[in-house]
């Protein structure tokens, strides 16, 4: 139950860059892709979530965090929805973006990094293959590897 609560965004466990993991529901475009995802949830496949790594560099004085995630190149297409559910290989992409602060829900502190977490994440991204297959080489595997 403790994972439901997130420490203050300025808190790190050892004074280094704070590393968080966040989970959000999978999204789909309106129409057939959304229908497919709704069917997946109705079949009790509610474990279908998207996982991301958030890094709050200790060098930043404000609460901004950097988000790294791995997802289908076109996540809202019907092809992506079918491939996700059938386990087929689809093209993926590693994204990097910024958030103003650490989300308060569905996000938890993993720990802190003694080195430069940003450099480590970028090095990992450069070695990460971008062919995506759910359950084999997906956002969960990416998140585990990055952390």
Description of the structure:
Helices cover 27% and strands 30% of the residues. The protein has 147 residues and is of the alpha+beta class. It has one domain (2-146). It has a 6-stranded antiparallel beta sheet. Helix 1 (32-42) runs parallel beside helix 2 (78-86). The two termini are 21 Å apart. The relative contact order is 0.24.
Keywords summarizing the entry:
single chain; 147 residues; 6-stranded antiparallel β-sheet; 27% helix; disordered N terminus; PTB domain engulfment adapter
What's this model, at a glance?
The chain has 147 residues and is an alpha+beta fold.
Head-to-tail CA distance between termini = 21 Å
Number of helices: 4
Low-confidence stretches at least 5 residues in length (pLDDT < 50)?
1-13
Number of domains as seen in the coordinates:
1
Question: What integer value in Å does the Rg equal?
Answer: 16 Å
For the residues shown, what is the average pLDDT? 81
* Helix proportion range: 25-40%
H-E order: EHEEHEEHEH
Question: Spatial order of the strands in the main sheet?
Answer: 5-1-2-3-4-6
């Amino acid at each position: 139950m403790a994972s439901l609560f997130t420490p203050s965004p300025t808190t790190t466990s050892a004074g280094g860059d704070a590393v968080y993991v966040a989970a959000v529901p999978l999204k789909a475009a309106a129409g057939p892709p959304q229908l497919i995802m709704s069917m997946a949830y109705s079949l009790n496949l509610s474990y279908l979530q998207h996982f991301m790594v958030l890094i709050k560099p200790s060098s930043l004085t404000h609460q901004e965090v950097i988000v790294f995630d791995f997802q289908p190149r076109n996540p809202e297409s019907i092809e992506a929805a079918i491939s996700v559910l059938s386990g087929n290989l689809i093209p993926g992409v590693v994204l990097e973006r910024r958030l103003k602060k650490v989300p308060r829900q569905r996000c938890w502190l993993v720990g802190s990094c003694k080195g430069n977490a940003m450099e480590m994440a970028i090095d990992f991204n450069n070695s990460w293959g971008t062919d995506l297959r759910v359950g084999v080489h997906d956002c969960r595997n990416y998140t585990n590897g990055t952390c």
